[in-house]
Amino acid sequence: MKWLIVIVVTLVVYTWISRVKNNINLFLENYEIAIIDKEDVEREGRHTDDILQLRPETYDKSIDLRGTPTHLCPCGSNIWSLKVIFEDFEIATYFLDMECVSCGSVATAPTPVDRKEEL
Ligand SMILES: [Zn+2]
Fold first, then answer.
1. C-beta separation of 80 from 94 below 8 A
2. How far is the CA of 43 from the centre of ligand 1 (A)?
3. Contact of 113 with 95, CB cutoff 8 Å
4. What values do phi and psi take at 11, rounded to 5?
5. pLDDT, tens digit, for every residue of 55-76?
6. What is the 3-state secondary structure (H, E, C) of the chain?
7. What is the rounded CA–CA span in Å between residue 70 and residue 9?
8. Residue in 45, 46, 32, 44 with CA at minimum distance from that of residue 102
9. Cα(39)–Cα(59) distance, integer angstroms
10. In b/e form, how buried is each residue of 9-36, taking b as 16+ CB within 10 angstroms?
11. Ligand 1 center to 7 CA (angstroms)
């Protein structure tokens, strides 16, 4: 009698494990698992379309590049924050000091006059 109980319990456990295994396989066939830690979530949060979030995480690597007008920051970014004045729905004036949105370096904004000097 004791052996019969052991055999029945073994069959029940085996059946249960088989069902769990089948469900796991079904799950893995239909879904992808992404392991995301807290840093990934925070990093991902910085890649929003919100322009106000477009700023450097830290200014540790920022440098003062002011003097020579430039389009591109040494960090590789070509997006700058600068102050502008609008007139008649267009940018009428902009300040020459600008800040890289990626690393925080400050540089001099290019102007049409600088283009003539290059030619
Ligand atoms: Zn930069």
1. no
2. 18
3. no
4. -65, -40
5. 898 999 999 999 999 999 999 9
6. CHHHHHHHHHHHHHHHHHHHHHHHHHHHHHCCCCCCCHHHHHHHHCCCCCHHHCCCCCCCCCCEEEEEECCCCCCCCCCEECCEEEECCEEEEECCEEEECCCCCEEECCCHHHHHHHC
7. 77
8. 46
9. 19
10. eeeeeeeeeeeeeeeeeeeeeeeeeeee
11. 70
Protein residues within 5 Å, CB atom, of ion ligand 1 = 73, 75, 77, 100, 102-103, 105
Q: Which of 118, 6, 8 is nearest to 69 (CA)?
A: 118
Provide the CA 12 distance to its chain's centre, in angstroms.
49
pLDDT digits (tens, 9 = 90+) for 92-119: 999 999 999 999 999 999 999 988 755 5
Buried b (16+ CB within 10 A) or exposed e, 75-103: beeeebeeeeeeeeeeeeeeeeebbbbbb
